[in-house]
Design a protein that fits this description.
heterodimer, A: mainly alpha, two-stranded antiparallel sheet, 23 helices, globular, B: mainly alpha, 2 domains, about 0% strand
Chain lengths: ~500, ~160
């Protein structure tokens, strides 16, 4: 009952006209950028972030979250119509979705996607509302050593599954931790690594890092990929709504996908893409239509969408209750909260209940808005895909410049974005993923603070990390993940070398 | 599973022989990280490590630098020859985008927001041969006008539309 009352309170917060408006702006911009292939939700959030600094924390958080889940809705549109996923998670949707589109049933695929996304998001929202208060309660008993261990676990879990392998992922996290030390040391007031540049006193701004690593480098990478393809599909509204049997076949996948997604979303390190992939794999085994999978079936579109949208929502659980982001977009949420002077963590629920429950309720409101944007108004997004990319990308570059410049009214930040973007692009080429770097960058200062506190309280004895039961357990889990990840990276490498020696085998193994 | 999703996300992942030959990511990346880690370790020592009870300003940079140094060495050895490049590099797009950012940085304060936006669009779209120069200029004009309306008109940000004229 308590949860319902709090949720009702949150609903009142989000229904205030101002919050409602920012929620709408968020889902609209999120869908917009999600529809554009090649540019993911990270770039979208980074672009919106400078604008939120002029708002109160609650509408700002509502808007950032709305951009994030709006991008997931939009991501599926491009993947169905063009077989070019707008966001990585949508690549799973493309498997069945593009087949449906080729059969002339793009409308049905888009409709099922929107419905499944909504269903999945609602499951995720319920999970947040039910789980967060008790998790926050538990986290209130955490000491600094436990916090340090939680952050460590979050960082390792998130980087160990990186595409380039565990080693590179962890190296990127550590690099991020180091970059986070640039600027004034808050404990001692000393300047660190500013190289005499006054603009670096306050450190590197999170927007600069995110815009460079994601906005700029994604843009460079997406230009060639997008100059050829164009949406050729048109939506026939007579063919838009699924048949009665297809309607019925939607519910099972939504429930299963939503449940699987909400589990993986809440775990650190496993984001929407993994949730969608696993949900699709499970559905392929249990669905009554499993034999038709791969040829374009409605449940095959519904299940990954339900999973990735519920994962998108439950990613907020560790972020808001522990202050430890499970995924890069959540790192930006943490960064934004800290800019407002709000410490993310278990006290957030107690100290800022309106903000927390307002955010949770905004998931309901925002997803209803998205349903409207993506069902009756889908034609608008389809037309957006017809705008040539050569017009889009110079415009996006200007938005990036404006966003960065607006931080301090200073071109130094634009130069820094250029450098980080260029380095980020080269990193991508060499399979060093930018996401773990951003996580490390955001969590570095928190981690350092907890380390200092722990050492002060334990009178300089580092064994305290293994003596406290909570931190000892967390560290044991971290070590476990580390061992498994490094082992499987090494195995993959060995297999890759074997196929490199015997190229003929490649086809049979893949 | 990992490699499968990898391929899906980078369709160009194993396109050509050429880019397997370019697979020096391990050495180059690891080497650069090693240099970075040494900078932070030396810098950390310089700032002072403090004592265990009261960690100094340099302790955290030194510790993370040390961890990174180990990782970088392992990457150099373990990942040499690497997996090839993740995608074929597009240096023309790279140059266009970085030059566009640079032209914004150079002109924003000197000429103001509107000329900077115009120039940024034109520079960014330079490599696109399908859009004639006049088209680039028109696009630049539209984007510049729109950003004037949005950032100064609607959002009221303290930007100068024109400066130095």
């Amino acid at each position: 009952m308590d949860i319902l009352a709090s949720f009702g309170q949150g609903l009142l917060v989000v229904l205030e006209p101002q919050n409602l408006m920012y929620c709408f702006i968020g889902v609209f911009l999120g869908t917009f950028i999600g529809v554009l292939p090649g540019i993911g939700s990270m770039a979208a959030i980074a672009m919106i972030l400078p604008l939120t600094f002029y708002l109160d924390p609650t509408p700002a958080l509502v808007m950032i979250a709305a951009v994030f889940y709006g991008a997931e809705y939009g991501g599926s549109t491009a993947s169905i119509l063009m077989n070019v996923p707008g966001t990585p998670a949508a690549s799973i949707t493309a498997i069945e979705g593009y087949q449906l589109a080729k059969k002339g049933r793009a409308g049905v695929a888009l409709f099922s996607t929107a419905t499944a996304s909504f269903g999945g998001a609602m499951i995720g929202m319920v999970v947040i509302a039910v789980l967060s208060p008790s998790l926050a309660q538990l986290a209130l008993s955490f000491g600094p050593a436990d916090y340090f261990a939680v952050i460590l676990l979050g960082l390792i879990a998130a980087s160990a599954v990186s595409n380039g392998g565990a080693l590179k992922g962890i190296a990127m996290v550590v690099t991020g931790l180091m970059l986070g030390t640039i600027g004034i040391d808050l404990t001692t007031g000393d300047l660190r690594f500013t190289m005499g540049i006054p603009e670096l006193r306050d450190g590197v701004h999170i927007v600069v890092v995110a815009m460079g690593l994601f906005g700029v480098s994604e843009l460079i990478a997406s230009i060639r990929a997008n100059t050829g393809g164009k949406a050729t599909q048109t939506i026939d509204y007579n063919e838009f709504y699924p048949s009665k049997e297809e309607w019925k076949s939607l519910f099972g996948p939504i429930l299963r996908g939503g449940t699987i997604g909400s589990f993986f979303g809440a775990l650190p390190g496993t984001g929407q893409t993994i949730a969608a992939a696993i949900a699709y794999a499970v559905e392929k085994r249990v669905s009554p239509q499993r034999k038709k999978f791969g040829t374009g079936v409605v449940p095959g579109v519904a299940v990954p969408e339900a999973a990735n949208n519920s994962a998108t929502q439950t990613a907020f659980i560790p972020t808001l209750t522990l202050g430890v982001p499970g995924s890069p977009p959540m790192a930006i949420v943490i960064g934004a909260l800290m800019i407002y002077g709000i410490t993310p963590g278990p006290r957030l629920l107690v100290e800022e209940p309106d903000m927390f429950w307002g955010l949770v309720a905004s998931f309901l409101v925002g997803n209803i808005m998205l349903l409207i944007l993506n069902v009756p108004l889908i034609g608008m997004w389809v037309r957006l895909l017809k705008i040539p990319y050569k017009i889009m990308y110079p415009t996006i570059i200007v938005l990036i410049c404006m966003g960065v410049y607006s931080l301090n009214n200073n071109v130094f930040d634009v130069w820094l974005t250029l450098v980080i973007g260029a380095v980020g692009y080269v990193m991508r080429l060499f399979r060093f993923e930018p996401a773990p770097l951003l996580l490390g960058f955001v969590l570095g200062p928190l981690m350092e603070e907890q380390l200092r506190r722990t050492m002060l309280l334990s009178r300089g004895d580092p064994m305290v990390f293994l003596e406290r039961p909570i931190s000892a357990t967390l560290i044991a889990i971290t070590v476990g993940i580390l061992v498994v990840a490094l082992y499987s990276t090494a195995q993959n490498r060995r297999r890759a070398r074997a196929t490199a020696k015997n190229p003929q085998q490649e086809g049979t193994q893949a | 599973m990992e490699s499968e999703s990898n391929k899906r996300e980078n369709p160009g992942a194993d396109e050509t022989e050429e880019h397997r030959a370019l697979g020096w990511g391990g050495e180059i990346g690891g080497g650069l990280l090693l240099v970075l880690s040494i900078i932070f370790m030396v810098g950390g020592l310089d700032l002072g490590l403090g004592v265990p009870t009261r960690l100094g300003t340099g302790a955290f940079p030194f510790l993370t630098g040390a961890v990174l140094a180990v990782l970088a060495l392992v990457i150099c050895i373990e990942e040499r020859r690497g997996d090839g490049l993740a995608e074929m590099p597009d240096w023309i797009a790279f140059l266009a985008i970085t030059a566009a950012l640079a032209s914004f940085a150079v002109t924003a304060d000197r000429l103001g927001l509107v000329p900077a936006a115009f120039l940024t669009v034109v520079v960014a779209s330079l490599p696109d041969r399908s859009l004639p120069l006049i088209g680039k200029a028109i696009l630049g004009g539209i984007v510049a006008a729109a950003s004037w309306a949005l950032f100064i008109g609607v959002l009221n940000l303290p930007f100068k539309a024109f400066a130095g004229f």
